[in-house]
Amino acid sequence: MTKLKTEFLSHYYDRKGVPLRARVFGNIHTLSKLAAPVAPIANLLTGSPIAKPVMSALGVHRDRKLSPFQGRTFLHRYRAHRKQRSVPNVTRGKIVYFHDTFATYNYPEVGIAAVKLLEAAGFEVVIEERRACCGRPMLSKGLIEAARKNARKNVNVLADYARQGIPIVGTEPSCILTLRDEYIDLLPDDEDAKAVAGQAYMIDEYLAKLETDGDLGIQWKKNTGPEVFFHGHCHQKALIGVEPSMTMLKASGCRPTESGAGCCGMAGSFGYEAEHYEVSRKVGEERLFPALRETPTTVTVATAGVSCHQQIEHFAGRSTQNIVEVLAERIDPKRPWRPKVTESSVVDEELPDPALVTDEPTPESTAHAKQQFDGPA
């Protein structure tokens, strides 16, 4: 259905032209990149009363608020983190964290939590600053050729890692799963695109795989973790399900409950659009919002995607955390990752020369008999 919508919009806009709102939402990465250096001013403007008529003119509902921009982006914070913590001499290998637009410019704490999780599992985290927007916002607005261009750039950047078997993980479901699902359609018969798709994972999906194999390596705090109300992202549910998320929450010592709800109602930019605002609210009101109202405020609300985070905070008034933030808080910093000891990695104790080993002590007479020089035996 999503692909049908994308194709329809593409053909429709070819004839009618691309609306300004579609261009704005489709190029949210570029706009966020421009806004971040002047974040205080950008946030003041978008949050002020004068912004409402501008938003209305764009077709955005007056009650919606844009995610705040951060002057200290994820890349700034990652570089500071790397200065404080150098890469260990021994790791289990490299892993690429594909930092999405929102983790980069709006919620950098999510990206840093992801890095800490991966490092706690023993990985050397690779941050590819050459990467482009995944293209999902463009696809959602029918801008197929722009998305294809970004897909080509990202495949060129990531293919070498994928061909080496290096995993590529992300924290935004619609972003990282676009690499897995849509890139092979945007770039048909492209072996590099297939290689990248084959190595693309949600971060909790990949860590859950290690956990299931008994090879996770993260040392968790020993105390009981918080109660967590977890709501999965629709893109996540469609392609991988919420089982990996629940597996990781349980492994970390948390006490999770899955929301049991369907779509939160946001659906990317859908819930921002004035004509869809009420529909967006009604969708969330079917199951998710009532479940949240019945959940005590002492319970942590966790999500996997920014859309769900925005929708829950807007309509339900509950603060949320990304699942990686919840998991990162459960890492025991006093017990860092250590290489797993296996039989093949144990160095055999050096044995003495067999010629010098005897079952019984040498009789004194024999010892004297073997003496070849003057002096006491």
Describe it.
The protein has one domain (2-328). The protein is 50% helix and 8% strand. The chain is built from 21 helices and eight strands. It has helices at residues 2-16, 20-26, 28-35, 39-47, 51-58, 74-84, 101-105, 108-120, 136-140, 144-163, 173-181, 183-186, 191-198, 203-212, 234-239, 243-251, 277-286, 288-293, 306-316, 323-328, 364-370, and strands at 93-97, 123-126, 168-170, 200-202, 227-231, 255-258, 300-303, 321-322. Strands 2-1-3-4 form a four-stranded parallel β-sheet, with helices on both faces. Helix 10 (144-163) packs across helix 13 (191-198). The longest helix has 20 residues, at 144-163. The chain is globular and about 65 Å long.
Question: What labels describe this entry?
Answer:
four-stranded parallel sheet; globular; 377 residues; disordered C terminus; alpha/beta; 21 helices; 8 strands; 50% helix
Query: Structurally, how many domains make up the residues?
Result: 1
Strand order in space, largest sheet: 2-1-3-4
Content of β-strand: 5-15%
Q: Helical segment tally? A: 21
Write the H/E string, N to C.
Answer: HHHHHHEHHEHHEHHHEHEHHEHHEHEHH
Major sheet, described briefly? 4 strands, parallel
> Can you give the mean pLDDT?
89
- Rg, nearest Å: 28 Å
Q: Based on helices, strands and strand pairing, what is the structural class? A: alpha/beta
Distance between the termini: 95 Å
Give the beta-strand count. Answer: 8
General form: globular
**Uncertain regions: pLDDT < 50 for 5+ in a row?**
345-351, 353-377
Helix content: 40-55%
